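Shipment paperwork, digital attachment
Item: protein structure file
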Amino acid sequence: MRNIRLDVEYDGSRYHGWQYQPNASTIQQVIEETICRITGERSRIIGAGRTDAGVHAKGQVANFSTKSTLDVLSLHRALNSLLPCDIVIKKVADVPLCFNSRRSALKKRYQYWIWNCRIPSAFYFRYTWHVKFPLNMTKMRQASQCLVGEHDFSSFRSSDCGCGASALRTILHIGIEACPDGRLRFDIEANAFLRSMVRTLVGTLVEVGGGRREVNEIHSILLAKDRTKAGMTAPAHALFLERVFYPAQDGNNSS
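Attachment content:
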């Protein structure tokens, strides 16, 4: 038996997220069906992150078990020749049987993009959230630092999160940068994320940046452990799973 790692890039616009769902097209389902066409085996793939409907990935990582003797180069070529153009396998590798794309991950990085301008963009609208009102970068950065560290993020997860009783997570870094082209980029790294956590964090920070909330409200929102106390959930189409990090012994320190 072999354990195969896939590094995957996809545009999630047409899909109902990563995870398999009955009567809905998902990234996992499409890749599994394609693997079956190539190997003749029904293999269940494990993804590092269960991205929601409409969310994209530049650095998703997955793995699956197979008895196939097809070499990784041939498998790589076959996958990309059969997959739809909005799902691309960037890398295929044999990895130790103990490697699990989800459990072996040290941390993940997500990026969220905002087009902060009164006038919309004909080019960026597919992958950015258009926020028309001016955003105060200083206030958003100050508020973001209140979220760094280990906290109970119950206030920032969806009601159907399904992650069990514990909402304890550790945010390692939040960066907010203004790009020369007018976009704003949010970089958020954590040891793990709850469902809709990144989008709710961004939605809340945007409310701070727009003057609808104060910086010092973030602490009380965390303590409340109540989703209704946080801000809106930012739209899915501007969110990207950017990178997954693994220990060096897993062959690569990142995706």
